[in-house]
Specification:
alpha/beta; Ubiquitin-like (UB roll); six-stranded mixed β-sheet; four-stranded parallel β-sheet; 13 strands; about 20% strand; binds zinc ion
């Protein structure tokens, strides 16, 4: 069977100039379903398919996961799928005439009882930032969020770490999120790191959880108060003369205190949160 050689086709519903089902498929039965993607999921679609019903032509019976990824949307971006208004999971098979609604993570829904696709809610999210998101990782740590940064592991290893530690993979690489082993991931839209931090706060509804200066921006370790006497030899004498409160990273030992650098970081936190207000 060469049924799928020219499939799938996705076109806006009611688009007169759209190609119909391809001929010459050797009598292979073709089916059609209608998809509607909500909110940020449209970011992944070509412009002509955004915010409209999409007619999807297929042969055989793909799983809903394959169909959604075939349309360019990583499955990890999806929280809820409804077929004819009923919640289904990724393994459901598409049938001719199905009307499919696909919602992103944390989209507020008023559809009654729906099945969440993720194994458990991400109440205290932990992140894993890929090699290209070093600045974002530091900002998330500054805001108090547990964020690993890894620029040495290959994709497979990243996925293993994220799954083993229940971390959400943050990446600008959509292909990474299509990896079969990924159950939690987010494609970061913004390019600028400050905007990225703001985007993550908004997307994961984390504003109330911001707790600055709890994590080491260098290594992600937890910062704890330390006795001045224990670290005295590491404090510049001019600082030791006027300041008594010190903190250290429990992992790498880096020393922190309320100096001018901390003031700059405070301003940075304020900037991220202020931009959230707007
Ligand atoms: Zn550290």
């Amino acid at each position: 069977m060469q049924c799928s050689s020219r499939l799938p086709l996705a076109v806006p519903l009611g688009h007169d100039g759209a190609p119909g089902p391809p001929g010459g498929t050797g009598g292979c039965p073709l089916s059609q379903a209608t998809f509607r993607f909500y909110s940020e999921l449209n970011d992944f679609l070509p412009i002509e398919l955004r915010g409209v019903e999409v007619r999807y032509t297929f042969a055989q019976r793909p799983t809903i996961k394959d169909a959604i990824e075939g349309l360019g949307i990583p499955h990890v971006e999806v929280e809820v799928i409804l077929i004819h208004g009923r919640s289904v999971d990724f393994t459901a098979h598409l049938r001719d005439g199905d009307r499919v609604s696909v919602y992103p993570m944390f989209e507020s829904l008023d559809v009654g009882e729906v099945l969440r696709l993720r194994p458990s809610p991400l109440r205290n999210p932990r992140f894993l930032a890929d090699a290209h998101l070093r600045k974002l990782a530091r900002l998330l740590r500054l805001l108090g969020f547990d964020t690993l940064y890894d620029n040495r592991s290959n994709d497979r290893r990243l996925v293993e770490i994220a799954e083993a530690e229940s971390r959400i993979i943050l990446t600008r690489d959509r292909q990474l999120l299509k990896h079969g082993g990924v159950s939690r991931g987010y494609w970061v839209r913004s390019v600028d790191s400050m905007l990225q931090a703001r985007e993550i706060l908004r997307r994961f509804d984390l504003r109330e959880r911001v707790a600055p200066f709890r994590r080491c921006t260098t290594c992600n370790g937890v910062i704890r108060p330390v006795d001045k006497a224990d670290v005295l030899e590491r404090i510049p004498p001019k600082t030791a003369a006027w300041l008594d409160e010190y903190f250290a990273c429990s992992s790498c030992g880096k020393l922190y205190w309320h100096g001018t650098h901390a003031e700059r970081l405070k301003q940075r936190v304020a900037q991220i949160l202020a931009s959230e207000d707007g």
